[in-house]
Amino acid sequence: SEPVLEIRNLNVDYGLGDQAVHAIRDVSLTLHRGEVLGLAGESGSGKSTLAYGTTRLLPPPGVITGGEVIYHPEKGDPYDVLGLTDRQLQAFRWAETAIVFQGAMNSLNPVHKISTQLTDVLRAHDPRMSENSRNARAREMLKLVGIAPDRMDAYPHQLSGGMRQRVMIGMALILQPQVVIMDEPTTALDVVMQRQILGQLVELRERLGFSVIFITHDLSLLVEFSNRIAIMYGGRIVEEAPAAAIYRDALHPYSSGLLGSFPALRGPRRELTGIPGSPPDLKGMPSGCSFHPRCPKAFEPCSSKIPVLTPHGDRSVACWLVES
Ligand code: ATP
Ligand code: SF4
Ligand code: MG
């Protein structure tokens, strides 16, 4: 299907000059209309940096040092998000692409009712909208994410973590964006709640037609809920494939490693601890394939030449093993 967001050769550094840490290296990734794209990888692999870079929300000292992020609006010509002025960016955020941050449920303002926080988003976006329409829209949104009308006037502390998370999802959807990015929205919630919220998001996507980039450690949730999965290592994408294909047979040794520590779909869940060694230090990245010091299959070219992400049928892989 058609692309809605195309990340092309994106590079992000933290800091400048000698101090620069290359957090995102030449990442290209396409989100298609209506799809749920899962993004997985160990802590520090660059998942959040990719999400923030794509939406121009990088905290300092983060800088985008190259690439393009082509957005395809519902109407009109595609444009590069990296070229938007601050003013254009304000219109773009929430209305075209919304992001639910890591730990977002704790970012609701404690002194305002949840209904007010939703109507504030509407007011900021369109000051001409009447108060009645704003309230009606907020009510409708909260209902959609399963918050009863009598909870509209609650303050954040009066809601459970799961409900606050749902309020955040409602807030992200209120301007009907085409793209919703969820950055580890679930780590703080219990497992049953995680599944409920994700299931609900997927259902809302079917009704409202947006696309999702979903970032998590929990590969079993990704396999269950996403169409495609991209796996990051050391700031690069090492494999990108349909969720079922990754689950069946991952081609990149790092993906297999993640899957090896992969909890059964219906068994008890575990942390991802399956790969010996630790994630690379961005300041002293290994030469060649950055996974080579940990890779059980490393061979001749691996320590000297960087494998490039290359298409293989319906997936892409960056590994010399797959090349040969
Ligand atoms: P997690 O799963 O823990 O959320 P992540 O995959 O989202 O990890 P990022 O937060 O994107 O990883 O971080 C990628 C790399 O960039 C890490 O090595 C991190 O140390 C580095 N980094 C992140 N933020 C900063 C910062 N403000 N200054 C310097 N380096 C940073
Ligand atoms: Fe392992 Fe070599 Fe493939 Fe890297 S390129 S994952 S070291 S086999
Ligand atoms: Mg993160």
What is the element layout, followed by pairings?
Blueprint: E1 3-14, E2 21-32, E3 36-40, H1 47-54, E4 62-71, E5 79-80, H2 86-92, E6 97-100, H3 114-125, H4 131-144, H5 161-173, E7 179-183, H6 191-208, E8 211-215, H7 219-225, E9 228-233, E10 236-242, H8 243-248, H9 253-260, E11 310-312, E12 315-317, H10 320-323
Parallel strand pairs: 3-8, 3-9, 6-7, 7-8
Antiparallel strand pairs: 1-2, 1-4, 4-5, 9-10, 10-12, 11-12
Helix pairs in contact: 3-4, 4-5, 5-6
The structure holds adenosine-5'-triphosphate, iron/sulfur cluster and magnesium ion (MG).
List key phrases describing it.
binds iron/sulfur cluster, alpha/beta, Rossmann fold, 324 residues, Dipeptide/oligopeptide/nickel ABC transporter ATP-binding protein, 8-stranded mixed beta sheet, single chain, 4-stranded antiparallel beta sheet, membrane, globular, transport
